Amino acid sequence: MSAIDENLLIMVAKLYYIEGLSQQQIADRISVSRPTVSNLLKRCKEDGIVEIRIRESTSLLAVLMSELKSTFGLDEVVVVPSQPDESKTTEATGWAAAGLLAASIRDGLTIGISWGSTTYSAINAFEAVTAFQGIRVVQLVGAFGAINQSYDGHELARIFAKKLNGSYSTIQAPAIVRSVEARQHFLGEPGIASAIALARQADLAILSVSPDDPDSSSLVRAGFITREESEVIRRNGGVGHSCGGIHFNIDGLAIPTLLDDRIVGITVDELRKIPRVILAACGAIKAYAILGALRSGIFHALAIDETAALRVLSKAKNAQAGSS
User: Fold this and answer.
1) Is residue 13 a part of any domain in this protein?
2) How far is CA 127 from the centre of its chain?
3) Which of 78, 115, 191, 210 is the most exposed place for a label (fewest CB within 10 A)?
4) pTM higher than 0.85, yes or no?
5) What is the CATH number of the domain that holds 181?
6) Tens digit of pLDDT for each residue in 171-200?
7) Mind listing the pLDDT tens digit for each residue in 69-118?
8) In whole angstroms, what separates CA 165 from the centre of its chain?
9) Angle of helix 306-323 relative to helix 60-72, nearest 10 degrees?
């Protein structure tokens, strides 16, 4: 490394890590592009000019992260403090999930998404990085017609792709249709078949989870199933669902439902083939749903809030004690 190169890297590192300037502010100051600043900061770490150290802590959050990783065999876990305001907890969980996403993305990835408020919070919190190349964002399951359209998969795919300077693919069909015949009709459309084929190629995905309790089910709220249908799923052992209509029992097994042949999107077996899947979920009311999802073996990383984490671990330990 030349002295000029090293001096430039040191200057950029000081401006970013010590003076707290944003990458854009640094770019404006030294007359380069923002992606160039991003690459210079990356090189600072690679060349040892910047060393980031995390102080070990015995705080409750650190203990919860460690226990969740070991209990469920996860690669990474981030636990955020729970807030009295539920929306603030969702926002904080989204920030944590955005961090997990940022650490997982590289050039040429195909990234799968579904829908939901927590997924929206993660993508909303994600800082735009235009230095990536060849990123493709794909919808894993059709549209839900969410009351807040920002939460729906097609809009999330568009926003996320824009932040990554990438392309996106959407499934132009409802997530769940009324009949098997209707599903076959949609799957026969070349554009939809092509979009689902792309979804099967996902390298990375971010999903949330919803309870199967009729009072809390996102499928009931969206009008895709009735309360009575949701209650049948719950009585048959369902504790939660993810990626549209993939339902889990408390042991993490995918359970069959009447929805299986009506979902326009990838299957649970195809979901399992995605190399890295991040679960973003919060709220103690989702504890059973989160527990079932984590036991499924589908998820590799988790962003969760403190109260939900405590409840999930408590229920996991109680279940183990009951079976021993």
Assistant:
1) yes
2) 15
3) 191
4) no
5) 3.40.50.1360
6) 998 888 888 999 999 999 999 999 999 999
7) 999 999 999 999 998 888 899 999 999 999 999 999 999 999 999 888 89
8) 19
9) 40
